[in-house]
Design goal:
The complex is a heterotrimer of chains A (about 325), B (about 280) and C (about 425). Chain A is mainly α and about 325 residues long. Chain A has a domain at about 95-260: MetI-like fold (Orthogonal Bundle). Helices cover about 65% and strands about 0% of the residues of chain A. Chain A is built from 13 helices and no strands. Chain A has helices at about 25-55, 75-80, 85-115, 120-130, 135-145, 155-160, 175-200, 205-215, 220-230, 235-250, 250-255, 270-280, 280-305. The longest helix of chain A has about 35 residues, at about 85-115. Chain B folds into 2 domains: about 1-55; about 65-275, MetI-like fold (Orthogonal Bundle), CATH 1.10.3720.10. Chain B is built from 12 helices and no strands. In chain B, helix 4 crosses helix 6 (about 140-165). The two termini of chain B are about 35 Å apart. Chain C is an alpha/beta fold and about 425 residues long. Chain C has 2 domains: about 35-150 and about 315-355, 3-Layer(aba) Sandwich (D-Maltodextrin-Binding Protein, domain 2); about 150-310 and about 375-430, D-Maltodextrin-Binding Protein, domain 2. In chain C, about 45% of the residues lie in helices and about 15% in strands. In chain C, strand 1 (about 35-40), helix 2 and strand 2 form a beta-alpha-beta unit. Chains in contact: A-B, A-C, B-C. Chains A and B meet through helix 1, helix 3, helix 4, helix 5 and helix 7 of A and helix 1, helix 3, helix 4, helix 5 and helix 6 of B.
Chain lengths: ~325, ~280, ~425
């Protein structure tokens, strides 16, 4: 895949290459034996059902009527592309991913910058702020569904106490607000992931760079864009990529919070896939899944090419054969 | 230190951090408070931000009206075992991927990474049929096996990152002394990598603990259900009882939170080191 | 090093857990005992408890048969049942509904019980409607346990306070009364609007009442002229009124209300009217907020021409084709749909009963049941019609129509647009796409 080199965490020892030697015979067998369990598990329980699922995308495969499951080529895909509902979910997915990602990134980045300087209880603070990541998306959905409840929800109560609104907002009942509510929940979920990943990267930037910049009289903004961001750009880029994939691919939060409603206002491609699966149309659901995988892989490739350093370092790629 | 900070900057920084902390902790606080309110007072208006009369009624109801204790034990069994198995299996594969070059290596890594991009629903139907054929439907063991398979790719990538922090000379020396590769791995490398292994284990554990759609699909009877599968039943059933629901949420969040807070640093290290390597 | 200790303790915990999990689970089979797996789909806790009690009675009478009841959450139950049936294992007896009997039998997933039911004395105890369902098309894929028919639950006290002498008879009266009762400032609303799961079905109920004079009774989505009911201009009037009911007499959050929320709205005293199945009678009786004398039921509201279409929905029990214990499975189905078990299920789950003998049972005459008696006794006003509920696309239609109703009430689409879409949808489906 991509040719990338991360900035080194401080403790990493330099020796690494000497061991990447050729091997033969007995060693190969041992190594194969080491790899085998992982490969067998992934092949049997992930790839076999996956490929099986993918072939349904090209068949008329509807659990409500299995008398004719013939091959239909790209019909399922065509149906989807002409389906307003599906197009709506694509639009929602983009809003959902971008709307969640941008605040997550900005807040997470700012938090990381704030956290870079040591202070008392920083460890405790990090541990506390890390909590959301341990909660499942589904539970977060339920939690925020409760908080955004139109009649008894705490969000409305707080906003009214702050005199920001006069009457309760039916957050999850009104298509105008529902997407905002699920995005707020998702931002809550994801901010700390960014903060902590970026913090880890920031801590690997050598202090000398900053000292040099300070001697040059660089201001805060210049230091940020001239030193900090370039030094950690790879981590930033990869964290964003990972997040995009995860946000796109995790319907749990939406499933728990709105189930895609109201009026499909919060249905993303993957949450809609759940619904179509429940309707029994495995063919169409699989076609959606295939499109998702395809788009994500394409996205990942282009993205990685785009962020690739101008002068690739030669050490990174060394695949024999 | 980096650069001296003005008082205003300091105030802004701690103010900002305070707001972030509030934003993070409040939802968790709210679910905790809700869980301790007496059943009748949950819908009381105006809202109470502190449970006036602290009540354990929701928790009592949760255990008496549902098999919550059973769900808890099931979740514990499934997550503990699956996380352990997948960590061990990933340890072996990560070792190979970190230390050696071979023809199909790129393909293996690619295949692992692609699993992260698959929306799980595409495979659920076929997986169910496969599991039926193996007599593993509605079985905690079946779920364990699937969780192991699902955890392996990311765990391998993480552990591979950790392996690269350990000089190869270590196990080479052991092998010169007559250890087999396997025993060199376990006797020499594993002890050095304990933080990484612990982090990977916890990461797997939490992911299994939280997993929803596979457990909902593969488990049927109440005796086998894990917590997420049970919560899914609560929420879609007839009447959402927010009191018991919040009690259940608290009970299912707390264990993972404690674990995660503890291992977060290492998990991040594994993710950054591992993911960026490819 | 504390990490090592931690890891060791985790590993130890893993081993303990593994050993614990290895022990004999509850699914172990005793010698010579037949174990039946039974799956329900309209799961709710009260009903599940009732079923378990009846199963207990069955097991007591039939030593050697054990039944394990699986209760998936309602909104995912059909998917789960489909998966089980497709895999051919893990299910013997299952809940079959008018919406699922078609797909299940098309796929040869369920067993035709006709041979076993031949000469069963239970058949003669069934009402005419129930017998019809049992012997649809000469096959017996299910024996119904009850019928679901809509009636209007209303708050006697609120109707009176609003200055009306009795519950509304027609849809327009309903809207009028609901608007009077509606008072958001007091957290009181007129109508428990169904905007979430099942929203489409209720919209169809009002449309049917408006086009009743031209309705094809055997396919209640068609007019006598062969077009869909959604093509009628009267359907637009119906949806306009329905929209009015939402906008001016229902809580805003009811956009997402499904079955539990709308029932809860009524039982918590928030709403004045609720259009629901008799099943709800039991639930409302348990309400601590509204008392017995505060509520009653009225017949389904009629359309402008004074008639209503009552689509009797049914559900029952069937046997999986893949079952290895069909004889025992059929035995259980028979047990549940005859005698005391059937009567208890109808009463405690409050369903329109399947047994003839219920006609003599005072239980089904008084109080909340009165409206059903009233509807039964005037079949020309409350016309029993058959909706195309068994079509392969019925789940898809359910989701589509729910979403469309939400679009309607959130102002994203006009009644005419919605109806045009529905007309196209059914016309195309009937034409075979």
């Amino acid at each position: 895949m991509a040719v990338l080199q991360t900035e080194r965490p401080v403790r990493r020892p330099p020796a690494r290459t000497s061991h990447r030697r050729q091997f033969t015979g007995r060693t190969a067998l041992v190594l194969l034996a080491f790899m085998l369990p992982a490969i067998v598990f992934v092949a049997l329980f992930t790839y076999y059902p996956l490929l099986n699922g993918i072939q349904m995308a090209f068949r008329n495969y509807n659990l409500n009527d299995l008398s004719d499951t013939s091959w239909v080529g790209l019909k399922n895909f065509r149906t989807l592309l002409h389906d307003d509902m599906f197009r709506g979910t694509v639009k929602n997915s983009v809003v959902w991913v971008v709307g969640s990602l941008v605040p997550q990134f900005l807040i997470g980045f700012t938090m990381a910058l704030w956290l870079r300087r040591k202070f008392r209880f920083r460890g405790t603070y990090q541990a506390l702020v890390f909590f959301p990541w341990a909660v499942s998306g589904f539970l977060i959905g339920i939690l925020f569904r409760w908080m955004f409840n139109g009649e008894f929800g705490v969000v409305n109560d707080l906003l009214m106490k702050a005199h920001l609104i006069d009457t309760p907002v039916p957050w999850l009942a009104d298509a105008k607000y529902a997407m905002v509510a699920v995005i707020v929940a998702n931002v809550w979920y994801g901010v700390t992931f960014f903060a902590i990943m970026i913090l880890a990267a920031l801590q690997s930037v050598p202090d000398e760079l900053y000292e040099a910049a300070a001697i040059d009289g660089a201001g805060k903004v210049r230091t940020l864009f001239g030193i900090t961001i370039p030094s950690i750009r790879t981590t930033l880029a990869l964290t964003v990529l990972l997040r995009v994939i995860w946000i796109f691919n995790s319907p749990e939060l939406i499933f728990g919070m709105t189930g895609g409603g109201p009026a499909n206002a919060t249905h993303t491609v993957t949450s809609y896939m759940i619904q179509v699966t429940q309707e029994g149309d495995y063919g169409r659901a699989s076609a959606m899944g295939v499109m998702v995988v395809f788009v994500l892989i394409l996205f990942a490739i282009f993205y990685l090419l785009a962020i690739r350093p101008r002068t690739p370092r030669t050490t990174a790629r060394k695949v024999a054969g | 230190m980096i650069r001296s900070e003005t008082l205003a900057g300091r105030i802004a920084r701690f103010g900002g951090l305070g707001i972030c902390l509030l934003f993070t902790v409040f939802p968790l606080y709210w679910i905790l408070v809700t869980s301790f309110k007496a059943p009748g007072t949950i819908f009381a208006y105006p809202l109470k931000y502190w449970p006036g009369d602290f009540s354990l009624e929701n928790y009592r109801g949760l255990f008496s009206q549902s098999n919550f204790a059973v769900f808890l034990v099931n979740s514990l069994i499934v997550s503990t075992v699956a996380a352990a198995l997948s960590t061990v299996i990933s340890l072996l594969s990560a070792y190979v991927l970190a230390r050696f070059e071979f023809v199909s290596k790129g393909a293996v890594m690619g295949a692992f990474l692609v699993t992260q991009m698959i929306p799980g629903f595409i495979a659920l139907g076929s997986l169910y049929i496969l599991m039926t054929k193996l007599y593993l439907v509605d079985s905690r063991w079946g779920l364990v096996l699937v969780y192991v398979a699902v955890s392996i790719p990311l765990c391998t990538v993480m552990l591979r990152g950790f392996f690269e922090n350990v000089p190869a000379s270590l196990e080479e020396a052991a092998m010169v002394d007559g250890c087999s590769r396997l025993s060199a791995l376990f006797r020499v490398l594993v002890p050095v990598m304990t933080p990484g292994l612990a982090a990977s284990y916890i990461f797997n554990f939490v992911n299994c603990w939280n997993e929803l759609f596979l457990s909902v699909t593969l488990l049927n009877s109440d005796n086998n259900k894990t917590i997420p599968a049970a919560l899914n039943g609560f929420i879609s059933s007839y009447n959402i009882d927010w009191g018991s629901m919040s009690a259940a949420a608290v009970l299912s969040i707390v264990p993972t939170m404690v674990l995660f807070a503890f291992a977060s640093r290492y998990i991040v290290e594994g993710l950054t080191a591992g993911a960026v390597k490819e | 090093m504390r990490y090592r200790q931690m890891f060791a303790s985790i590993a130890a915990a893993a081993v303990v857990a593994a050993v614990a999990a290895c022990g004999p689970g509850p699914a172990e089979k005793a010698n010579g005992e037949v174990k039946l797996q039974m799956v329900e789909s309209l799961t709710n806790p009260t009903r599940t408890a009732l079923l378990k009690k009846l199963i207990g009675d069955f097991e007591a009478k039939n030593s050697g048969i054990k039944v394990q009841l699986i209760s998936p959450p309602t909104n995912q139950a059909d998917q789960k049942i489909q998966q089980m049936l497709q895999s051919g294992k893990g299910v013997d007896v299952l809940e079959v509904r008018d919406t699922t009997v078609g797909p299940f039998s098309t796929n040869k997933w369920i067993y035709d019980m006709a041979p076993e039911l031949k000469g069963w004395d239970g058949l003669s105890a069934l009402t005419e409607n129930a017998l019809k369902v049992t012997q649809q098309g000469g096959k017996s894929y299910m024996v119904p346990y009850g019928f679901y028919g809509l009636s209007l639950f209303y708050r006697k006290d609120l109707v009176q306070q609003a200055g009306f002498s009795g519950p509304p008879k027609s849809w327009s009266e309903l809207v009028e009364q609901a608007k009077k009762i509606n008072d958001p400032a007091k957290n009181r609303y007129g109508y428990s609007f169904r905007g979430g799961l099942g929203a489409g079905g209720n919209a169809v109920a009002i449309i049917s009442g408006y086009v009743i004079d031209e309705l094809n009774h055997d396919n209640a989505f068609k007019l006598t002229n062969g077009k869909t009911i959604f093509s009628s201009p009267k359907a637009v009037d119906a949806l306009n009124l329905y929209l009015d009911l939402f906008k001016n007499a229902s809580p805003k959050s009811s956009v997402s209300w499904g079955y539990p929320e709308m029932v809860q709205g009524f039982t918590s005293g928030t709403t004045g009217f609720l259009l629901q199945d008799p099943e709800v009678i039991a639930t409302v009786k348990e309400s601590k907020t509204i008392k017995e004398d505060q509520w009653g039921t009225a017949p389904l509201p009629v359309g402008p021409t004074g008639k209503a279409a009552q689509p009797l929905a049914n559900a029952g029990w069937g046997v999986a084709q893949g079952s290895e214990h069909k004889a025992e499975a059929v035995k259980l189905v028979k047990f549940l749909t005859s005698g005391d078990a059937a009567m208890t299920f109808s009463k405690e789950n409050s369903l329109v009963p399947i047994l003839k003998s219920a006609a003599d049972d005072p239980y089904f005459k008084d109080g909340p049941w009165a409206s059903y008696v009233a509807m039964n006794s005037s079949p020309d006003t409350y016309i029993v019609v058959t909706q195309p509920r068994g079509v392969p696309w019925s789940t898809e239609w359910g989701n589509k129509s729910d979403a469309d109703v939400q679009k309607l009430i959130t102002g994203k689409a006009q009644p005419a647009d919605i109806l045009k879409g529905w007309d196209d949808y059914w016309t195309q489906k009937w034409a075979g796409k």
